[in-house]
Amino acid sequence: MECHKCSSNCSSRSPGFFPKFLRKYLKKPLETVTEPDKIHKIALVGMPNVGKSVVFNGLTGTYVTVSNYPGTTVEVSRGEARLGGTPIAIVDTPGMYSLIPITEEEKVSRDLLMNESFDLVVHVVDAKNLSRMLPLTFQLMETGLPVLLAINMMDEAKQLGLDIEAEDLETKLGIPIVTMAAALNQGLRHLKARIVDYVESRDLSATHREGYLQNRVSIF
Ligand SMILES: Nc1nc2c(ncn2[C@@H]2O[C@H](COP(=O)(O)OP(=O)(O)OP(=O)(O)O)[C@@H](O)[C@H]2O)c(=O)[nH]1
Ligand SMILES: [Mg+2]
Predict the structure, then answer these.
(1) Is the pTM of this model over 0.85?
(2) Cα-based angle 164, 158, 170 (whole degrees, multiple of 5)
(3) Which of 45, 47, 53 to mutate to test ligand 1, by most ligand atoms within 8 A of the CB atom?
(4) Ligand 1 within 6 A of 101 CB?
(5) Helix (H, G, I), strand (E, B) or coil at 83
(6) pLDDT per residue of the chain (220 residues) written in tens, 0 to 9
(7) CB–CB of 76/93 below 8 Å?
(8) CA 133-183-197 angle, 5° bins
């Protein structure tokens, strides 16, 4: 329909006029914008097949989006958890062996850690192969990232007769440690409690963030 045939008197309206039936589309993005700094954000990182996605599902439930990391075909899952009343954004990163990337997945995980500001990085490891996995914990810590170590697959480690002295390790490493068997829903509540404890201690997060920002330049 040509404009002059329209029954509406458009010319008398201000330039900001927007048809009523379209206003909901105009308003929606503005209303849903949240300030990123107001929500705590954590990343799940670790080698492939250690149980990151099982932990992610245990933390987030149904509020999940999966999308390709920009410019890649690598999928990154994002979700939100409400832990003890605290909303926390959670990112499930692709498996990586080292912060010095070889594969595209590792590069995506490294970029995520470098480009997004996380209040906490949960390093998920396989209890059966702890000594092979701890070097990545050290790399993450050296970068200044705030790290929590989640020692997963404790059920299989126990079957093999492996005994992990988590409290001793926690004292030695100086970071929070949780033991769990995510697939059996064991240790998940403890993990949630420690995540909340950690992200709510803002001073600690700020200190870690400062160290992180200083160190990231020297390592990368
Ligand atoms: N026995 C046992 N199996 C587990 C546990 N947690 C995860 N798994 C299993 O380990 C396998 C890998 O789990 P995922 O969550 O896909 O591992 P991931 O770290 O996300 O792997 P990538 O995405 O490839 O890096 C699955 O078959 C899980 O069911 C656990 O605590 N105990
Ligand atoms: Mg996964």
Answers:
(1) no
(2) 20
(3) 53
(4) no
(5) strand
(6) 444 445 545 444 444 455 555 555 554 444 444 444 568 999 999 999 999 999 999 999 767 899 999 999 999 999 999 888 888 999 999 999 999 999 999 999 999 999 999 999 999 999 999 999 999 999 999 999 999 999 999 999 999 999 999 999 999 999 999 999 999 999 999 999 999 998 888 544 455 555 544 544 343 3
(7) yes
(8) 70
According to DSSP, the β-strands at 147-152 and 40-45 are: unpaired
Nearest bound ligand to the CA of residue 52: 1
Contact present, 82 and 90 (Cβ < 8 Å): no
Q: What single letter denotes the amino acid at residue 121?
A: V
Please report the sign of the dihedral spanned by the C-alpha atoms of residue 197, residue 202, residue 207, residue 210.
Answer: positive
The domains found in the chain, sorted by start residue, are 42-219 (3.40.50.300)
Interatomic CA distance for residues 86 and 205, integer angstroms: 15
